[in-house]
């Protein structure tokens, strides 16, 4: 693909995803995966999981972080600029327009019902993200990632551990595992 077409595809892909997705970054992640892994085949499944993990652990909105990382991975700095512009432009325009009429709609019962229905849809998409990412980990058939995934879930869901603590611990476990694999000559655990 020509660079010009690549940049346009990156911009239009993230623009469409951002413009027609409600619920934030965790909703847009499976759609990015579908577009860039399954649709365009620019990124493979395992790399996408890694990119999303980096985006999630970086400060800032996950949708913007993911778009920057994906754009950079596909087409360097200019690709990252195209994807970030495509990601932030729709919410910027929509929020600017909404702010003009917010006072008139904030107490409207119909608007409140519509927003409640959107929350249900967002919950379903987030469940899809969790299931897709868990399936990717389970497909690896490696004990350590599965154990870490289960313990991270239990740590947050049962013990209400701080998510930052969980991310740091998972990062440390991954780093230690990577160092051990390199010492052993690349054997998987």
β-strand amount: under 5%
Number of strands: 0
The pLDDT mean sits at 87
Gross morphology is: globular
Query: Helix segment count?
Result: 7
Task: Please summarize the sheet with the most strands.
Answer: none
End-to-end separation in angstroms reads 38 Å
Integer-rounded radius of gyration: 19 Å
Structural category: mainly alpha
Order of helices and strands: HHHHHHH
Quick overview of this protein structure:
The chain is mainly alpha-helical and 189 residues long.
Throw out a few tags for this protein:
7 helices; mainly alpha; 83% helix; 189 residues; single chain
Task: Characterise this structure.
With 189 residues, this protein is mainly α. Helices cover 83% and strands 0% of the residues. The chain has helices at residues 3-19, 25-39, 45-57, 62-105, 109-140, 143-157, 163-183. The chain starts with a helix and ends in a 6-residue tail after the last helix. The mean pLDDT is 87.
Q: Can you lay out the helices and strands and say which pair or pack?
A:
Blueprint: H1 3-19, H2 25-39, H3 45-57, H4 62-105, H5 109-140, H6 143-157, H7 163-183
């Amino acid at each position: 693909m020509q660079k010009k077409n690549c940049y346009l595809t990156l911009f239009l892909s993230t623009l469409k995803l951002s413009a027609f997705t409600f619920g934030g970054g965790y909703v847009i992640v499976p759609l990015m995966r579908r577009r860039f892994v399954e649709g365009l085949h620019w990124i493979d499944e395992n790399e996408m999981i890694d990119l999303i993990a980096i985006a999630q652990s970086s400060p800032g909105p996950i949708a913007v972080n993911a778009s920057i990382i994906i754009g950079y991975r596909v087409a360097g700095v200019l690709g990252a600029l195209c994807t970030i512009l495509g990601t932030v432009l729709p919410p910027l325009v929509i929020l600017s327009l909404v702010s003009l009429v917010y006072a008139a709609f904030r107490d409207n019962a119909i608007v409140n019902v519509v927003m409640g229905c959107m929350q249900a849809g967002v919950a379903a998409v987030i469940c899809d993200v969790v299931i897709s990412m868990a399936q990717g980990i389970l497909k690896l058939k490696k004990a350590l990632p599965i154990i870490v995934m289960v313990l991270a879930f239990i740590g947050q869901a049962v013990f209400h551990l701080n998510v930052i603590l969980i991310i740091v611990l998972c990062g440390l476990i991954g780093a230690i595992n990577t160092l051990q694999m390199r010492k052993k000559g690349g054997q998987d655990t």
